[in-house]
Amino acid sequence: MVDELTIIVPVFNEEESLPAFFRELDVFVENAPVVVRALFINDGSTDSSLKVLMEKCRERQNSCTVLTLDGNYGLSTAIKAGIDHCTTSLIGYIDADLQTRPADFLAYLSFFPEYDMVNGIRQNRQDHLIKKLSSKIANAYRRLMINDKILDTCCPLKIIKTSFARQMPFFIGMHRFIPALVQLQGGKVKQLPIAHYSRHAGTSKYHLWNRLIGPFFDTLAFRWIRSRYIRYGVTSQNS
């Protein structure tokens, strides 16, 4: 039985979305059947995001913490930093833009401990056409190259067993392969349809480079890592 969950929330210039995000988070924390903590990773924000985070987390000292990085390192590094600082048995991940909602984590929890990760599949995506097309192309290319059978690998609503999260090999672009990295360890991944919403406020941080060209090279890197990944079992040990 899982009794604790830490949700990692990377933040880069999301001052407009954060007040509404905290309201949504409060609803989830109140209704969750487990103890929930939130770990916000301030990834070098240059707006008022850090100020908002500090104020809101001060009001929620028992459930919210802010970790501030010394620069803007990108999503993969922010997620790794969050994993490095989690102590609970489960780790969740969600973006602060409210295109996915914390309440949808409730449907995930019943799949533990049977599964080692639950990954969302965004339904009726509320994105502009270029973003949707580039995502479809990138997902199709990734499945062709690595055959992970994950339909929406970049869905920003995930829960992972901490034991698996800590063993994932990390590299820039890693966030695009989290389900495959769990599978690489022999883990079971459950895919679950979830709702998708229009961006609450602010602007997307993604463009053509990090939606198509970046994933192309990252997929090649993953194939290289997978071909050299060390995994073994022990049948006995003499004392």
What is the structure about, briefly put?
The protein contains seven helices and seven strands, in the order E-H-E-H-E-H-E-E-H-E-H-H-E-H. With 239 residues, it is an alpha/beta fold. The longest helix has 20 residues, at 208-227.
Describe the structure.
- Helices cover 35% and strands 19% of the residues.
- It has 7 helices and 7 strands; from the N terminus they run βαβαβαββαβααβα.
- The protein has helices at residues 18-31, 49-58, 75-84, 129-146, 162-165, 178-184, 208-227; strands at residues 4-11, 35-42, 64-68, 90-94, 117-123, 157-161, 189-195.
- The chain has a 7-stranded mixed beta sheet with strand order 3-2-1-4-6-5-7, sandwiched between helices.
- Helix 4 runs parallel beside helix 7.
- The mean pLDDT is 89.
Return the CATH architecture: Alpha-Beta Complex
Q: Please tell me the overall pLDDT.
A: 89
Strands in their spatial order, largest beta sheet: 3-2-1-4-6-5-7
Strand content: 15-25%
In whole angstroms, how far apart are the ends? 32 Å
Fraction of residues in helices?
Answer: 25-40%
Q: What would the principal axes of the Cα set say about the shape?
A: globular
Sheet/helix structural class: alpha/beta
Number of domains: 1
Q: Mind describing the biggest β-sheet?
A: 7 strands, mixed
CATH H-level superfamily = Spore Coat Polysaccharide Biosynthesis Protein SpsA, Chain A
What CATH calls the topology is Spore Coat Polysaccharide Biosynthesis Protein SpsA, Chain A
Whole-angstrom Rg: 18 Å
Order of helices and strands: EHEHEHEEHEHHEH
**Number of DSSP strands?**
7
